[in-house]
Design a protein that fits this description.
2,3-Dihydroxybiphenyl 1,2-Dioxygenase, domain 1, 8 strands, alpha/beta, 4-stranded mixed beta sheet
């Protein structure tokens, strides 16, 4: 028996707002809203569904799961994401492989790598 990835779910105190932000960054569409408690994105640049689950309080500390995203033009993507409301956490790597760690508007960290 094997497992397959169905979706990546992120806890948030405002599922609809964060889902709209990620939809804008990935070109995905919101396909389910479930009265704002569980919002699903599909399509665009996403190979799997991305879901946002409303919680009363976020888990304390660093998020346990993060997204690793790719782009052909890392420098342009850094500028675009920061302009869209992401926070640049750290530039990493070297000339052979570069990536940047960001936080989305609710502090969830994610990485974008040059590919």
């Amino acid at each position: 028996m094997t497992l397959t990835l169905g979706m990546v779910t992120i806890d948030t105190t405002d599922a609809e707002t964060l889902a709209r932000w990620w939809a804008g960054q990935t070109g995905a569409g919101i396909t389910q809203t479930n009265d704002g408690w569980f919002v699903v994105l599909e399509g665009g640049g996403l190979p799997v569904m991305l879901a946002f689950q409303k919680v009363d309080e976020p888990t304390p500390g660093k998020n346990k799961i993060h997204l690793d995203l790719g782009t052909a033009d890392l420098d342009a993507e850094v500028d675009r994401l920061v302009s869209a409301g992401a926070t640049l956490v750290e530039r990493r790597g070297d000339e052979s492989f570069r990536w940047v760690t960001f936080a989305d508007p609710q502090g969830n960290e994610f990485d974008v790598a040059q590919h």
